[in-house]
Amino acid sequence: MSIAASQTASAVQSVRPTRIRHVVLWLTVAVYMITYMDRTAIASAIPFIQKEFGISTVTVGWILSSFSCGHALFQVPGGWLGDRLGPRRALTAIVCWWSFFTAMTAMSWNAVSMVLTRFLFGVGEAGAFPIATRSLSRWILPSERGYAQGVTHAGSRLGASLTPPLVVALTVAYGWRSPFFVFAAIGIAWAVVWFFYYRDTPSEHSSVNQAELSIIHDAIGKRSGTTRSVPWRAILACRTLWIMSAMYFCYGYCINVYLAWFPSYLSDHRGFSMKQMGLYASLPLLCGTVGDLCGGWFSDLWFKNTGNLRTARRAVGSAGFLIAATGIIPSALTDNPYMSVLFSCVAVFGLELTVGVSWALPLDIGAEYAGSVSAVMNTCGNTGAAVSPVVMGYMAHSYGWNQPFLLAASLCVVAAVLYMRIDATRHVAFAELS
């Protein structure tokens, strides 16, 4: 190395690195919050909507499912859009799209119009998590990925936990349509900030100094902002991806029990008033926020201390699903409504303990194609989420509320077994049909 080069390297090392990647992370946390505020607002508004439209529990199930149908069908196109256009343009566009249909939810006049609006809303939100995952793939270090995915999903659950009391308060004051207009405006404001601040690669961002660039490039390599064809043959041949996807189907089914139906369950089956429902429906999701933070952090800590990425991902994910199963069963069977909420808090904490780890997996195995890899996984997760409200609506109508929860507990056990077969070191680039 020449003297000049040595002096340059020393100068770079002496400069304190900027932390623009952390600002990018917190902007991503904000959009995750917005996605769940927008999608879960309807769950708390359903008792008011059901009364105004005069619709049955089964019809409500189809309304709640319509979002997940659109969400599931457009996961892969959404991930592809992020990989092709880059997260800056793609995420700006889809946030504007779904914010428009969030507002349009308030303009619905019957069950059919609401099903169509919620489906188109789901189409827009479908690309959110895959594209956001792609947006982090060129910024976040491998040793920070579990934490990063944990904190982003913690943001989504925090948004979901804040939504019931906000929706109830706005609805009591201004009618059930008002929350949808408020949440739509928040989404548009975020899209403007994202477009003007975010860049698809760290080297394109004027505020990133050379010291931070060196940290990022040393950890994940220097990647250009140019787009390339997505290697779908290699992605779809990856056995690990399909085990991840089956696991995430189980997760999607189970979490949507709490996102879509829990407020109605508390008011219809557990006898809580509307104001009580707004409070108690938020508690499990607050516990889920803690689970998101703990799962990703603990997995990264395990990896740093042992260097064993496969076990670090497997152990935390499997344990989370087993905790969820042990919470769901007594929450359904107890006669005490407050104990039911308490056990539901345990269940959602366990479910969310798995999420940061699950979303670190596409970054682990997919690298710069993490958007497309996560889209496949999330398609299966949202298929489970789409099935969940309909199945639960029919089961609750025909057999009572206990059976749907016991089914969810069974799926948690299946997911725990699947997690122990996931290999985070099996990269898409080396996929084999074995």
The value of Rg in angstroms is 22 Å
Distance from N terminus to C terminus (CA atoms, Å) equals: 46 Å
CATH architecture call: Up-down Bundle
If you consult CATH, what is the topology? Answer: Growth Hormone, Chain: A
**Outline:** globular
* Total DSSP helices: 19
> How helix-rich are the residues, as a percent range?
over 70%
Q: Mind describing the biggest β-sheet?
A: none
Question: Oligomerization state of this entry?
Answer: single chain
Classify the beta-strand content into a percent band: under 5%
Summarize the structure.
The chain has 434 residues and is mostly helical. It is 80% helix and 0% strand. It starts with a helix and ends in a 15-residue tail after the last helix.
